[in-house]
Amino acid sequence: MANVDESRLRQWLSKYHNPEVTLRDVLNAVNHYQGLLPFHEYYTFTDGSTMELVNLTGTIPVTYKGNTYNIPICIWLMDTHPKNAPICYVKPTADMSIKPSMFVDQNGKIYLPYLHDWKTHDGTSDLLGLIQVMIVTFGDQPPVFARPKDTDMPYPTNFVAFMPGGSYMPPYPPTSYPPTSGFGGYPPYPQSSNLPYPSYNAYPSPYPPYSGGAYPGPSPAVGGTGTIKDEHIRESLLTAIEEKLMRRMKELFQQNQAELETLQRTQEELKQGKTKLNTILSRLEKEKSDLNKNITLLKDKEQELDKAIERLSNEEEIDVDDAVTTTAPLYKQLLNAFAEEAALEDAIYYMGEALRCGVIDLDVFLRQVRTLSRKQFMLRALMQKCRQKAGLAV
Predict the structure, then answer these.
(1) Is the separation of the CB atoms in 236 and 214 below 8 Å?
(2) With helix as H, strand as E and coil as C, how does 255-285 read?
(3) SS3 at position 156
């Protein structure tokens, strides 16, 4: 594990917007790549302003033609990390020169699709992934080469910047990066107004628009080194196009998948709604049928009532007592007992009113009520017996 003072690193990140997330990202990177160490130094922006930022400086292992080389890099973390992409540079020694390509310009700044498409909301972009992309990219196109000792000699056409086996010439260990001057012990970057470096105030993307091909930077053949061949450019272009197409296909697939899930949910809701509507329609049809029957029945009753009214209007008045007749002696006895019991009920009521008004005294009231109540009890018993005989409800 890398020798990192976590408490000091936490203190450096105290002014960052997301210190805990940045701390985890840095520790994860240095634990996987122990050639990198964090430093806290001043970074100079293109507008001349400076700011204390944390950077990861050191080497990363790159495999080129079967040999492993340590490539020196410097990764500056913005104070809004991980929201904004880091600013990355290749940091060659005095015996090395930068080999410009579509991924590295003549000043050592690194341009990668991973940096241009930096995404943190879905967790797909972090320092560890960035370093891994650098390793793969530099394995295809090394960013530095060794300077010839004799200045009259032409530059070599092959990558001989480092000795294989995990070290390079001259020795360049990560511990030799004391923050003595410039950025981490290295000379300050040239601050030319035409460089695509960011301004701190606005934090725009420090990388030019990427359209799937080469970045609008230096020509791959800058300096006439001859180290970038046509097949390298062709493979890089094909890789960039393939990545863009795969990314686009993934976006389209996810979009279509989301639309399909929405349509499926809508279909299920429509099916449930159809079932409910069919149930409601069936109930309404039944209610309509019942209403039609009731309407027909009411019309028939209305016709009967009209006929009865017409017939009664043409007849003479009917005596109520004569109109009430029974079909059997038992029913007649029941009817008479009911009428007499109702009369006794009225008599008891009026006896009470007479007592209240002082027409009769209490003794007369009690004697009469006792007699009437005895008769009423006998009549009710008679009515109950008649209803039992007639098979009526008691």
Answers:
(1) yes
(2) HHHHHHHHHHHHHHHHHHHHHHHHHHHHHHH
(3) coil
d(CA 69, CA 63): 6
Q: Provide the edge-to-edge strand list for the sheet that holds 67-77.
A: 36-44, 50-64, 67-77, 87-90
Burial of 66 (0-12, 13-18, 19+ CB in 10 A): exposed
pLDDT digits (tens, 9 = 90+) for 207-221: 554 444 444 444 333
Beta bridge partners of 55: 39, 76
In the block, residue with structure tokens 């008599």:
347
The dihedrals phi and psi of 67, each to the nearest 5 degrees, come to: -110, 150
How far is C-alpha 183 from the chain's CA centre?
42
pLDDT tens-place string over residues 234-273: 777 888 888 889 888 988 999 899 999 999 999 999 999 9
- The candidate with the shortest Cα–Cα distance to 116, out of 244, 17, 237, is 244
The pLDDT-based confidence of 392 (bands split at 50, 70, 90) is confident
Yes or no: say if 71 and 62 are a contact pair by the CB < 8 Å rule.
Answer: yes
Tell me the CA distances in angstroms from 242 to 180, 235, 237, 238, 248, one per residue in order: 44, 10, 8, 6, 10
The span from the CA of 301 to the CA of 319, in Å, is 26
Distance CA 330, CA 334 (A): 6
In the block, residue with structure tokens 């480092």: 162
Cβ-contact 128, 28 below 8 angstroms: yes
**Helices 362-390 and 329-357 meet at what angle, rounded to 10?**
160
Per-position DSSP letters for 315-332, written without gaps between them: SPP--HHHH---SSHHHH
CA distance 54 to 59: 16
- Cβ neighbours of 212 (radius 10 Å): 15
Q: What is the dihedral of CA 127, 84, 119, 16, to 10 degrees?
A: 70
Helix (H) or strand (E) holding 333, with range, is: helix 329-357
- Describe the chain by its helix, strand, coil percentages, rounded to 5: 50, 15, 40
